Amino acid sequence: MHDAPRYEPLEASAFFTNGGSARTLVANTVARGMLRENGHLYQGTIDGQLTDMFPMPVTAEMLARGRERFNVFCSPCHGRTGQGNGIVVRRGFRAPPSFHEERLRNAPVGYYVNVETNGFGAMSDYTAQVPAADRWAIAAYIRALQFSQRATVDEVPADRRPELDTAPEFVPTPVPGQPGAPGTP
Fold it and tell me: Where are the domains of the chain?
């Protein structure tokens, strides 16, 4: 076992007739768990057409997850409000379009999932970084951002309108090692 033969990946070898050290993959095979046949979930399409239907219920938890994922992956370019003025744009990179322009406000929600999945223009795809369910959560959050920019007071339920005049309570995040932080004497 001390002298067992071993090959580096893609190293030449006389073992196989093609001169490789490993067998080539069988054509058209897909790794277990990697078949993405559900176009609705993975591409934002139904029968090849972009859809406005979500493949799962849109809940408060989904929107919260979408906001968190949006802030991580999208806000560096698109900004926290989707205006297209993120930090990388302020550093000289090409500005993406605002999510609030009419063309994107009228786009089906599947459009956002499709762009996240496949990329578009200067934007690369995020398939490897963002799972399909999170791409839908981001799309739902984008819709909420779009709605928030044009909502009127009349669209707020009457019993919730008094909350509009009160500022949310600010609770600072404790910094480890600073007085008052958990675990600090």
Answer: 64-150
Q: pTM higher than 0.85, yes or no?
A: no
Of the chain, the end-to-end C-alpha distance in Å amounts to 57
Report the alpha-carbon distance of residue 95 to residue 74 in Å, rounded: 12
DSSP codes of every residue in 43-74: HSEETTEE-S--SS---HHHHHHHHHHIIIII
- Give yes or no for a contact between 114 and 49, defined as CB atoms under 8 angstroms apart: no
Q: Which CATH architecture has domain 64-150?
A: Orthogonal Bundle (1.10)
Structure tokens at 71: 């802030």
Q: Inter-axis angle of helices 132-150 and 109-118, to 10 degrees?
A: 130
Number of neighbours of residue 145 by Cβ within 10 angstroms: 20
Q: List C-alpha distances in Å: 139 to 54, 68, 166.
A: 9, 12, 29
Q: pLDDT tens digit string along 9-61? A: 888 888 888 888 888 888 888 777 777 788 899 999 999 999 999 999 999 99
